[in-house]
Design the sequence.
């Protein structure tokens, strides 16, 4: 949905954004879409160059040249639903100013998808501004968003081992994919793969996942395929869930929609629901194909 | 490093809840445990809590509960004090980071396995969401950790001084808007800081707060509150509170002669 702002905003080209990069002990690297080595104890050192036409921005926003305008970065984390300010500076009243955003972000409040929002905002109302100009402090004159998935497969998709004798699952089963009911809740914490300690073949394969034998690989392939099947079926059996569903970023509902879209880019969810109902064997084969069960190492 | 707590998954939690509903508080005391066969640890992300630490947490909670009248029914005011002390205790001593505290099955473990007696004493015959891992905003323990986390002032000597600002029902209004207003610790703390100065006349506090939150949500569509410094944020929140209080007082002609403003 396009947001309608009740005040003048400049065109997007008043700011030229450079790429986000992450500083590491070995130097810098472009910020990837997924940070697989992140955990709660990680402090991210982030960096981004910008070129801003501060005068043109003020003029095209209906503000006088001396208007107090800020450039800042906010963070938002989907697992905790928390947000905060990471960096902040006054925007110079010059055109072609080079600005460097540079800050450290501790991991305590983060998790799931991290959204970095770079924004230019009005600090306070200014005498002499146009009637159409923003007046409320904090009014967003320009903004840019970037998302980073903060954890690798392991953290987003935690695995636990347990004796199925003690759980309400079939004692001889190899695994159970636990999915919470609330589609609005953060995906992190809503899904847990529980592996049965009694099932020696599966346990051995899961424990050897970093250096599996050929036999382990076949087990893991079957496990991955089944996990995909359970997630897709969970999505398809929730009739409220559609491609147009507006679930929050990082929520279980959003994750399920993405899983189905990635697994079956050529099919609508409605078409998949019909096929699952009318031709379950064919649907099952499609899951095998898309999950590449038993294909290669 | 975050401390990992056992997660009691939905099916096992529901079964325990049904059993606990039939039990007396003393029977629940006897049934408490430091582990449960159906509780599992996630394999990654931190250090597993030890049995000794779980026992210590239980002892600490019991001590606060006894001061509030546990296992007897106690007074309403005692339960309010209990909540405030527990919020502080859980936040200070659990070693949780926010990402882990958002994992709901850990709260089900605390309510149904480690502290069933205190949980069912605090909320006798509770609806499921008070003890299961279904809704943190309603959970007997989870909501208190989050209340402390959102209101804590890390740089202050008494970092939990804002905990007492709102009653439970009022704070629920903030927490239920976690994905908009309630996710901003700066905004939540600012609302709590200015709140004692807001004159809501005879209009119930909760009504004024709901109106303020709606107003801030509307502004938040085009305003980035996090970009403001502390003083400006305080002015904005105060403006919203003054406007809300004045509007509600005007709509309630019998609300008394107290003047508008703060």
Sequence:
């Amino acid at each position: 949905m396009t947001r309608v702002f009740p005040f003048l905003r400049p065109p997007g080209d008043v700011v030229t954004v450079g790429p986000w990069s992450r500083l590491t002990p070995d130097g810098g690297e472009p910020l990837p879409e997924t940070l697989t080595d992140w955990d709660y104890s990680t402090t991210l050192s982030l960096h981004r160059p910008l070129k801003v036409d501060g005068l043109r921005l003020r003029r095209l926003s209906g503000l006088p040249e001396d208007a107090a305008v800020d450039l800042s970065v906010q963070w938002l984390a989907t697992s905790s639903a928390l947000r905060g300010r990471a960096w902040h500076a006054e925007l110079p009243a010059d055109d072609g100013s080079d600005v460097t955003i540079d800050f450290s972000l501790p991991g305590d409040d983060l998790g799931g998808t991290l959204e970095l929002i770079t924004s230019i905002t009005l600090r306070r109302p200014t005498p002499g501004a146009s009637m159409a100009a923003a007046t409320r402090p904090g009014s967003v004159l320009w903004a840019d968003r970037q998302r980073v998935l903060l954890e690798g497969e392991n953290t987003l998709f935690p695995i636990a081992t347990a004796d199925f004798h003690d759980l309400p699952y079939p004692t001889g089963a190899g695994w159970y994919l636990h999915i919470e009911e609330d589609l609005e809740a953060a995906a992190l914490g809503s899904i847990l793969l529980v592996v049965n300690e009694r099932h020696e073949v599966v346990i051995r394969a899961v424990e050897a996942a970093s250096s599996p034998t050929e036999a382990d690989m076949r087990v893991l392939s079957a496990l991955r395929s089944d996990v995909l099947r359970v997630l897709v079926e969970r999505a398809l059996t929730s009739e409220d869930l559609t491609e147009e569903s507006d679930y929050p970023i990082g929520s279980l509902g959003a994750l399920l929609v993405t899983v189905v879209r990635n697994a079956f880019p050529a099919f609508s969810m409605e078409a998949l629901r019909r096929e699952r109902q009318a031709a379950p064997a064919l649907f099952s084969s499609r899951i095998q194909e898309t999950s590449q069960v038993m294909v290669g190492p | 490093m975050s401390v990992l707590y056992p997660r009691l998954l939905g099916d096992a939690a529901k079964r325990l809840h049904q059993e606990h509903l039939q039990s007396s508080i003393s029977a629940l005391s006897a049934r408490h445990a430091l582990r449960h066969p159906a509780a599992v640890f996630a394999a990654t992300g931190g250090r597993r809590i030890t049995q000794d630490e779980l026992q210590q947490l239980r002892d600490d909670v019991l001590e606060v509960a006894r001061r509030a009248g546990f296992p007897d029914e106690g007074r309403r005011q005692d339960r309010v004090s209990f909540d405030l002390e527990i919020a502080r205790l859980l936040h200070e001593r659990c070693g949780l980071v926010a990402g882990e505290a958002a994992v709901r099955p850990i709260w089900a473990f605390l309510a149904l396995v480690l502290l069933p007696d205190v949980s069912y004493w605090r909320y006798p015959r509770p609806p499921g969401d008070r003890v299961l891992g279904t809704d943190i905003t309603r959970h007997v323990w989870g909501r208190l950790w989050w209340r402390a986390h959102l209101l804590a002032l890390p740089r202050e000597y008494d970092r939990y001084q804002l905990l007492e600002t709102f009653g439970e029902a009022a704070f629920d209004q903030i927490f239920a808007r976690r994905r908009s207003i309630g996710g901003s610790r700066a905004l939540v703390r600012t609302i709590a800081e200015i709140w004692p100065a807001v004159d809501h006349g005879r209009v119930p506090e909760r009504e004024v707060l709901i109106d303020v939150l709606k107003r801030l949500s509307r502004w938040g569509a085009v305003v980035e509150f996090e970009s403001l410094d502390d003083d400006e944020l305080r002015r904005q929140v105060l403006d919203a509170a003054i406007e809300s209080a004045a509007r509600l007082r005007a709509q309630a002609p019998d609300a008394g002669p107290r003047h508008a403003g703060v």
